[in-house]
């Protein structure tokens, strides 16, 4: 005698979710001799009038930081350059410093007034004050 089993059509979705859960979040290891790419760590605060961003950029020169504002999108990028200084008799035993480019893109909930935005860089911390654009109120049109 055969058994009839009722299947829930959504149970198949759960089966695949359970099968692939964690599959794409396993950490990817780099070779031991390759320094790991650092990202820009930041705090973004929203006030009534402006956004305030604090971004850690240790070892970056002020001239190597690039800030792009486009409407509601903020892009921070920086480049850490390697100084090639060699001394006679010195041998590099281990290097754990990062050299290269890093970038972060942040989407904000309201457009930024680019003309009044301010940036300050002190002790490896970039501080941005990004005033919000005034929201245009709806205007009623008169019919001619």
What structural category arises from helix and sheet content? mainly beta
Uncertain runs are 26-37
Q: Measured on Cα atoms, how large is the radius of gyration?
A: 25 Å
The helicity comes to under 10%
Could you give a short account of the major beta sheet?
Answer: 4 strands, antiparallel
Protein traits:
single chain, 144 residues, mainly beta, Immunoglobulin-like, four-stranded antiparallel beta sheet, three-stranded antiparallel beta sheet, 7 strands, 33% strand, elongated
Characterization of the model:
This protein has 1 helix and 7 strands. It is mainly β and 144 residues long. The protein has a domain at 36-81 and 100-131: Immunoglobulin-like. The strands form 2 sheets. A 4-stranded antiparallel β-sheet has the order 1-2-7-6, with no helix packed on it. It has a 3-stranded antiparallel β-sheet with strand order 3-4-5, with no helix packed on it. It starts with 10 loop residues before the first helix and ends in a 13-residue tail after the last strand.
SSE blueprint:
Elements: H1 11-20, E1 41-46, E2 50-56, E3 65-70, E4 73-80, E5 100-107, E6 118-122, E7 125-131
Antiparallel strand pairs: 1-2, 2-7, 3-4, 4-5, 6-7
Can I get a quick summary?
The chain is built from 1 helix and 7 strands, in the order H-E-E-E-E-E-E-E.
